[in-house]
Amino acid sequence: MSSTVPLPPARQIVPMRDLPDPTSVQGRPPSGFEYILIWLCVAIVAVAGAFAGWQFWHTDRIFSGVHIAGVPVGGETRASALLRLHRELTPYPLAPVFLELSPSSTEGDGLARTAVRRWALGPELLAPEADLEGAVTLAYHVGRQGGWLKRIVSQWQAFSGRQSVWPEVLVGEGVVRQAVGDAASEVRRPSRPAIQIGDITLPPQPGLDVDVPATAHLILAQLASGQSGTVPLQTYSTAPPQSAAADRRQSGAGVESSAAEGISGGFTALQPVVLRHEPSGTAFALDAALLQRIMPGGDPSFLNEEALRFVVEGWANQVSYPAQDARLRFDDATSALTVIQPSRAGQRLNVDLTIEAVRKALATSQRTGALPIISIPPAVDSGRLNELGIRELVASGTTYFKGSSSTRVYNIEVAAEKLVGVVVPPGGVFSFNSAIEAVSGANGFEDSAIIWGDRTAVGVGGGVCQVSTTVFRAALEGGFPFLERHNHGYVVSWYGEPGFDATIYTPYVDLRFLNDTSAHLLIQPVVDRVEGVLSFRFYGTRPDRVVEIGEAEYKDIKQPGEPIYQEDASLEKGQIKQVEWAKEGMTAIVIRKVTENGRTREDPIRSVYRPWNAMYLYGPGTVIPGVTDVKEEPTATPTREENRGGDG
Question: Residue 633 pLDDT more than 70?
């Protein structure tokens, strides 16, 4: 019986001519279109990477190309830009305004003038105040507002040099009036009556005066335009007085009229009263309407002093401005002082003396009087540097802030910048709050962590207490008496050993100390952003004193309470995030001994810190291990004692 064995399937033989060309599938070169597509993808990735890198590098910097008042600040942090502006724009380069007296403005005054007189009113004279902090904030927002397309366009305009910011500039009206008054004193000329010399009669001569308020108004309008320009000095002629002979003729002819009207006080009582400050030419007048209001019966003995005081206080607001102290810098290498802000005298109108001058003017027939404007000299005069006694390092203090957030570092730099060059005269009081003014967004500060009631929260000015603490340590080392100092509500890790910190909270909680030396005291901060070091150096004349600062003594230690858990809808279920760390409460006492002139005084520095509970945030539905009764966070209610504006 035969069997059949299956044969393997026959292999199919394909002719070589029917095989595909390998180079036509995998090995063929890309077509032109594919080349374009590949390079287009590479370009898109490169541009996207460059754009992302550009945005990341400018995270806390002003976009490149932005200028403030002509000063390039692109690529700089807000604090470094502010420091540069203070360095390059002090005094602010205000467009000069020229005050001009032309010959035509003096026509009819009896004198022939052909030359034009001009006075330059520049920044050194007008002392403009520029809002540099506000300008830096505006510059930082360039390229950061609107949708992405609008932001990109704005950033490109900045990069191409087409984005400039100009700060708001303020010039005091009182300063402008003073400048006009100085010019007026050079051109003002009194009138004179006709003069009889033998058989020759000299004709009467009209006078020339300056309308100071009107001229000041025109100057302020020109300054507001931001452009240089010329303002005409507003002048007017004053009628010559009558001669003595004419007075006698007029009095003989009109004696009955005088008796009927002048003596009765009807018309005479309502003649204007003019008070003038001769050195500056500033003048104010009480016209008939004002006199009727403050002297209803026309009798000076029944003067409404309350109404008159209201009018005079309005005058005082127009002409008064404070003195400006010089700000200085000390060079350690040369021991030389440099003026970084010149001093300027101020002035004020004495209200009580002005009221008395009005009373006296009402009792005279001329109805004129002197306007009692009093000059206020600066406490620190930039023209008398050699008399200040600033010649050496007196004390210093240092703290560390490495690891702080960018906004906290920014606030530290802004607060330190506001203290650059501050000089405290002998016997003067340094006030931290007065030097930095308000801790607010309008004053250049940003949101960061602060102490808010019984928790750390985000608020304006976090980091400022790093500066006040550093100033406190320098004053502590120098032996200066403290008039006001407050510790933080709890122990803040930024400041190291408890008992050596100082918090502020404008305008309620301040740091104040007395300069009890015989020389001026210069305060000079040094900020090292890279290393995270803040130092304050005090310069003056080192007193013959020995300062000993003892170790801090800690007592009344109080343990923190149970952790506080709070639900946070922004977290996922099962997610727990710690936002506060437990701190012990305690009382810290530091004894400072100051020995001077054979006498020793002890200054106890006492700090009371509350215990601080740990706090956790958790997502909705999260089971907290080991916790059956979740303690909700109490409402944080800041008070003047608890909310010390401190840092988190």
Answer: no
